[in-house]
Every structure is written in C-alpha cells, then in structure tokens.
Amino acid sequence: MIAWLLAFALLGSCAAWPLSFLVGRRASGWLLALVPAALFVALLDFVPAIAAGRAITWRIAWAGSLGVDVALRLDGFSFLFALLITGIGALVVVYAGDYLSTESASSRARFFTLILLFMTAMLGAVLSDNLLVLFLFWEATSILSFLLIGFHADSPHARRAALMSLRVTAGGGLALLAAIILTGMSLGSYLLTDVIARADELSQSPWILPIVIGVLIGAFTKSAQFPFHFWLPNAMQAPTPASAYLHSATMVKLGIYLLARFEPVIGAVPRGRDTLVAFALATMLVAAFQALRAENFKTVLAYSTVASLGILVMLVGLDGPMATVAMVGFVLAHALYKATLFFCAGSVLHATGLSKLRAMGGLVRFLPVTAVAAALASLSMAGLPPFVGFISKEFLFEAQIQSSWNAVPTAVAVLVNAVLVAVAGVVTLRPFFLGRGKVKSVHHGETPGLLVGPVVLSLLGLLLSLEPDWITASVLRPAIMAVYGTDVVVELPSLRHGVTQTLVLSAVVVGIGALILRFWRPIHTHLRSRTVVDRYDTEHAYEFLTRIGRRAAAFTARAVQHRDLRRYLWVVVAACMTFVIWGHVASGRLPRLPATVTGWRIGPAAVALIGIGGAFAAVRTRTLVSTMVAVGLTGFVAALTFMMNGAPDLALTQFAVESLVVVLLTVVLLVLPLQAPSTRTRRERTVDAGLAGAFALVMLVVLVDMSTTSRPALVSDFFAANSLVSAFGRNVVNVILVDFRGFDTLGETTVIALASILAWSLLGPRTSHAKGAAVARGRTIFILVMTSRIFFWLLAGLSVLILLRGHNEIGGGFVGGLTAALAFALISLADGTDRARAMLRLHPLSLAGGGLLLSIASGLPGLFLHGDFLRHLWFELDVFGIPIKQGTTLLFDLGVYLVVLGAVLAFLFGLRREAGR
Amino acid sequence: MSVLYAVLAASLFGCALYMILSRNVVRLLLGLSMLASAVNLMVFLAGHLRSVQPPLIPDGADTLRDSADPVPQALILTAIVIGFALTVVLAALSLRAYRAQGTLNTDELRSAEHLGNPVAGGADGDR
C-alpha cells in the first residue's frame, strides 16, 4: 500500500514535464500541486493505525542473494515527516507556479519535475526500513538539491554553490554508506528496525567506532552542522520555493531523522551523546553569530536554519524523554514558521528585486497579507505564546533541565534563542514595517499563488497551538513513541501553570532578544566590519581542499596522460607481463613441459615454420607492401593450421578474410607512401625488441604450460551431446553460433554492422566516386574483365550454398557473407566500383541494417511463443514430397550473412571512393 | 606438435608487438592484424589438438565423438571476422589521417590536442 504512494509520486514527477507545457502559465502550479496534495490526503488514511501505535510495512525481494529487500515502513516518526513533505510540498508547488511565472516554459517544467522528484526521493528516504534503500533515496535528494541550487546554471555563483552542496552532502553520503555496510556486516541485517532493536549488540561490534563516525558525518553534512554548515547559506542561490522546501523544511532535517533513528546506537557508545551535543553547540553559536552578520534576507534565514538544526541535533543528543518530545515538536514548529518566512522572503525578492535587508522597508503597503503572515511566523519563531513556537521552546528548556547535562547547553540555548528572537524581529520589522518609504514601488503585488503557502502555514502555527489535541494524538505522540521506544505522556505547557523555571528562561530569552533587536543595526555593522572572522570560516578549508584536489588531478593527468602512444603501450604490455609472471610465481610451481613428444607431422610442421619466417619477415621489411604480404602470409599459415587440425570452418573464414584484407589494404596503400623507413632510433628499436622478445617468451611458456594440462571438457561435451538432439544441426560450430550462443553472435554481428557505419561515415564525400571509378577502370586487365562475370556468379552461388548447408555441413552465415563479398570485390576490381554498386542495387548499409533486423526478428517467434529471445523454432515442410526440416536458425544465419556482406562492401566502396578522390 | 605451434604463436605475438610499437600507423595496424592471428591460434591451442576430425556429427550418429573441440572454433570464427573489421576501420582511419595531416607518424598526429584542454572553462572553471 505505501509502495503505491511512492509509485504515484514518481509517476506524478514524470508527468510534471508534459503537464506543465499542456496547461497554461497560471494553472500549472495549482494542477501539479494535486500530486503532493493527493499524497497528503492518502496519508491521512493511516491516522487510526498510526495513532494506535502501529507501523505499516511493505516488502518485496530485490537482491535476495545480498539479503537486500525493498522494505518500507511507516511509523509515527516517518508519518510526521511524510505529512510535512507532502503538505508543504503541495504549498511549495503552488507557490512555485507563480514565483516562476516569468521563467520560460521549459525551465518551469524542469523546476516542477525536479521538485516533485525531490519529494519522491524524500518520501522514499523516510519510508525506507532498509538502510541501503534509504541510502539510495538519501543520495537522490543530494543530487536533486544540487540540480535545484544550480537551477540558474548560467550564474557562476549558482554553479559554485551547487557543486559545493553536492561535494559536501554526497561526500558525507559516502561516509554514511561505509557506516551502513559495516552495520550490515556486524548485524547481518540492513533493516533499520533491527539496528534499533539490537542497538546494544551493535555497540559491541568491533566496527562501532567507524559506524558512529560515518553516521555522524553523513548526518552532519546533510543537516549542515559545524564544520560542514557553510554549504547551506550558499545554497540560497536556489529559487526560493526550493530553499523553503529543501533547505529549511525537509531535506536538511534528513540528517536529524537519521540521528534520531540511530540514537539508541549513539547513546550506547561512550561519549556518543556528548559528541552530538558538542557539535550542536558549536553549530548553534557559529550560526547565531553569522546570522547577526548576514546581509541578505535569505542568508539571515539560512543561518537561523543552521542554528535551529543545531538545536535539533542537541535535542537528539540529550537524554531523557523530554528531549525527544522537544525534538519532535520543534521539527514541526520549525517547518511551519521557517517555510513561511522563506515564502515571504521570496515574495519580497520577487516583488522588489532587492535581496539586502537594509535596502528594504515599508513593504506592508504593497504586500499586506505577506506582511501579516511573516509577522505571525516571526512570533512563532520568537517563541511567544500562543504560537506553536512557544510550546516547542518550553519543551526545549524542559528537556535541558531534565537532562543529565550541566548548565552549558542551557546557557548556549538561551543565547542562541535570543538571537533567533532578534532575527525573527529583524526579518519581519525591517522589510515590512519599519523604514516607511524606502521602497517606492514594486514590480507586482500579491497573487493568490504567492499567498496560499505563507498564509496556510502561518495560520497553522497558531491553530495547532490553540487546538493541539488532534495533532498531538495522531501525529506527535506516535512520532515520539517511534523515536523514544515507549509512550510518553506529555502535558502541554501553558501560562496557567504560573511561573515555572522554563517560563523564566523563556522570558530571559525574549528579553535579551528584544535588546539585540533594538540595537541590531550597530551590532550588525560592528560585526560586519570584523572581516578577520571570515578568515577562520570552514568554507576556506573547503576551498583549500578543492584546490588541492584540482592540483592533484592536474598532476596525475600530466603524469599519466603524456600523449605518447608508445609509452602507453609499453606500460600496458609491461603491466600485463608482470601480472602473468607474478601469477605464475605466486602459484609456486614451475612451468610444465609436455611429457612425451608425439603427433609430429611433416606438413603442418613445415607450414608452421613458414609462419614463423613470415612473422620475422614482417618485422624486417621496409616497404609497406612487403610488410602486408608477410603479415598476410602469417594469416594464411593460421588458416592452414586450422585446416590441418580439424577446423575447416575457421580455415574457410580466414582464407576469405585474408583475401579481402589484400583487396582492401591495397586500395589504401595506393594512396599512402609505401616506403616506411624506421621511425625509431637504434636504441628504441633495441629496447622494443627486448620487450617484444620478453613478451614472446612469456607467451611461449604460458602456451607450452597450457598444452600440457588435462582439460575438463564439460562445455564441449554438452554441445557435442546436444547439438543434433536439441538443436537439429550436425555442424556443432555453427549450432553453437546460431543457437546455443545466438545472443552472443548477435552482439558480435552488431559490432560488425557498427564498424561498417563508422568506416562509411569516415570515408570521403558522396559525390566524387565517378572520377574514382574512371581511374580504376583505366587500369583494369582485359582477361579479368572478361571472366569476372562468370566468377561472380560462381562465387555468389557458392556463398548461398555455404549459407544454406551451414547448419549441417561446413559453412554458415559468416563464411557465406565473406564469399559473397569476394564476388562483389571481384567485380569491383574488374569493372570498377560503380559497376559493383549497380549490381548490388541496394546501399551496403541498408544491407547491413536489414541483416541485423532480420537476425533480431528471427529471435522474436521464440520470444512470443516461449518467452525466450532467440529460442529457435523448427518446422517441417513438404516440398514436392521431400520433407525439409527448417528452423528460424536459417533466418538468423541469413541475417549474419547480410550484415557481413553489407559491412565488407561498405568498407570496399568507401575505401575505393576515398582513394579515388 | 603443440610445442611447435606454441613457438609459432609466440613468434607471432613477439613480432606483432614489435610492429605495434612502431610510430608508423600502417605498421601498427598490420601488427594488430598479426596479433589477432596470434590470439586466435592461442585460443585454438587452448582447445588441445586432440583430433584432426572436424566437429561434424556424422550421418547415423546422434552425438559428436572424437573430433576437434568445437567451442574454441566457435569463439575464433567470430573473432576472425571482428579482427578483420577492426583492421579495416583502422585502415580507413589511417587513410583519413594521412589525407588530413599528410603524415603517418603517430607523434605528429596531434590535431586533437591542439584543440586545447576539454576541461578548462567547463564545469568547475567558475573562478
């Protein structure tokens, strides 16, 4: 059931692109918001089950051998996140529809697709029970965040910020992956539920330290904790709807989500909680300080978000049930007011084009509803009653008092919350209410799309506090139970309880906050002038590491990529030889020699000696023609060797190939300079000869050793036994090619077809072959012209015969195609390429393509009838009373025949055309 | 006999490598063509020269007995044709390179590198 939610989300994201084109500029946001809205409504269906403390699970096997199932689980904590993701997601999409109204249609479509894909990934991350699946969604959110921050890819700032966030968050993701794999090794399970249930067992694992460090790095990078916090303020380059959604309400809380899930494990490790609190306090202080220094509306909000994330991490680190209560409550409260403030900041940005807070003022005249929403959200952020923010702040102090920690976190929290109060005041009062007349006009007023989000969320911040029963019973309490493990009975704080400790702390916070707000301007300018602080920002460490990485890459590239082909070859060959020798030495035995020298035959031995002579002749000759002849000689020796050792199929193929190589290379050599004086110095030649000799020696040892082993012949025996019985063919080689290993052969046929396309496109212009043909004709030999027709038809007929008989006798598609190509080559030599092309009628590439299609088509009947591609079917025909048994193998082989013929002719015609140019 | 074939294949390997190390593109491609023959012979020898009978099932028999190993043959058959295609594509490339640059020397065929660094000014070059 919950899997359908994910499937629907993914489907909706894919539909976003076409839909946003189909419906107009105004309506697309409203229409696409239906996707998250529908998911939100569907989720509400689970309220009874969640409120009863149950979890909904779903599971399907994925990679069973690795023990990886796609396991989904919706419990109270996931439910809270899922509601935030879908609910705020709907408002963000509506808002984006109007916010991006000035963008082009395609970039709006891109934004909608990305934001809905992000929503899908985010939902997947909080629904996954399997850590590996969670990791996949986790990294998907990092990548989508990268794409959204770099949405305006023409801006260098946006590109830099996008890369920065990707490097930090995806890099942290790798640490998380290591932690996940170690967890799986320790527990034998990747299930999050197992991690929680067996936290004590996991804490005894020898890997526990790297596991906790990996989880912390993953969570700290994602949730922008010190020292990785710097990417979040930079991420404000993203369009504001994305900032509101990813960088305040949802994605940055994924790290908190993970920490909360791993809390039992971290708590079981000595100093685990202390580490969390220490980093959280550092984050809070740094962020509060920077929030006072920041100039831009969105940057101020970003630093206040970092501070809030620090508070959340601290709450995860503190022990006691109240810490969990406060954490869950703050996740909700923060999402509501911070998303509102981002919406309002976006509206201001959009309406005025200004980004600096000091330049704004008096906007309540132009954006009255936005101003009211911002005021409500700010009051909640400042933690004043009767807003949700008040309740969550009371819980925060309650948690600190109840925890076993000393007063340090409380003091820091008071200070940081005071700064947050001041920030809440600044971001509302300065742009909207103070400085009347600073802004004279705006580009446009408020539109419904820009208002729905801030109004709904800011009112929720009030309503949920006034009517807390439903949300407490159906969302918050189950969420607390899911994290803490047992049900926690919570009494909501209220002013009616009289003056409590927490209320005093709250009052102190508001008091200090009001003072900072009053003197914001001098504090701000004073802190801003202290540029020495910037020097110690961790962003510099990032820049430094990036520079080092770039330098190392440049150094490696210079060292490895030296642009000398010979040195590349040297390295490859020498490395291969080293591995072979190393393998042999490591095996710890001497190379074997054959025990008896048997089976000597005079003829084959003479042929082999000729081949050795040919190889050395090829090395010694100094003109390319004689080199070609010598190399051709070794090819013919190989063919004869095949012939004399029971491989007539190979011999035929090799003979045909060698003949064609001569025809084709001669065409090339007519153009190239034939004299090839040595290109190497004497020293280089000596060194190369040494390497080649060593290589030959190693190969000799390997080959002799190989020929002495007795060989298990299971595969060969299988083919020998089944070729006729199962595949109805007597030529076992051909049966292997077209039937048993048909798919393999199809791949190799495709390679040949692609090679022909490559050669055809490389070679020469289309127009000039008339001239080339004339040149060729002028040089032809009379007797060849007279006899070529006869030989053409003989060879063509022979090729068809070879093809047809291939399944039971020597032959097949490859040899047949080569023979047919020889027939055309003969015509081309005698009468010119034009004549050969005229006789072919078809384009050689059409021939190759058609052959490939035929080969593929021959596998389709088997696919449709038996579900196996290239499972060949057989049928018997009665032709004039003679029964003929035939199968789809013939079609397959005909396809191979056509591909080979077409490819060789493409080579031939292309080369002759280029040569005749 | 297999020892002599091993010597043949090893000589082909060595000579082919020596040619491949040349700076002349055509010698390089001829060397590769020879290397293909050497590899084919090696695969063939891996099948052990156990019989000179072709792997054809005779009339009246249902299974193959006492013949050369069909598996290496099936592997080599396609390898021969693909090696041929590779040789010809390389020949076409050499021809085009010679037409465009007037040389067959690999050290002088550098026009791609004169186009400059493909990375500079790309994804990360924003400062």
Overview of this structure, please?
- The complex is a heterodimer of chains A (917) and B (127).
- Chain A has 917 residues and is mainly α.
- Helix content of chain A is 75%, strand content 3%.
- Chain A contains 42 helices and four strands.
- Chain A has a two-stranded antiparallel sheet.
- The longest helix of chain A has 32 residues, at 156-187.
- Chain A starts with a helix and ends with a helix.
- Chain B is mostly helical.
- Chain B has four helices and no strands.
- Chain B has helices at residues 2-20, 25-46, 70-101, 111-114.
- In chain B, helix 2 (25-46) runs antiparallel to helix 3.
- The longest helix of chain B has 32 residues, at 70-101.
Q: Please summarize the sheet with the most strands of chain B.
A: none
Radius of gyration of chain B: 22 Å
Provide the β-strand percentage band of chain A. Answer: under 5%
Overall geometry of chain A comes to elongated
**Count of DSSP E strands of chain A?**
4
What are the low-pLDDT stretches of chain A, counting only 5+ consecutive residues below 50?
Answer: 768-776
Distance between the termini of chain A: 68 Å
Whole-number mean pLDDT of chain A: 89
Biggest β-sheet: strands ordered side by side in the sheet of chain A? 1-2
**Which oligomeric form is depicted?**
heterodimer
The largest interface is:
A-B, 117 and 92 residues
The total count of helices of chain A amounts to 42
- Which parts of chain B are unreliable, with pLDDT below 50 for 5 consecutive residues or more? 121-127
The N- to C-terminal Cα distance of chain B equals 68 Å
The overall average pLDDT of chain B, rounded, is 85
What's the count of strands of chain B? 0
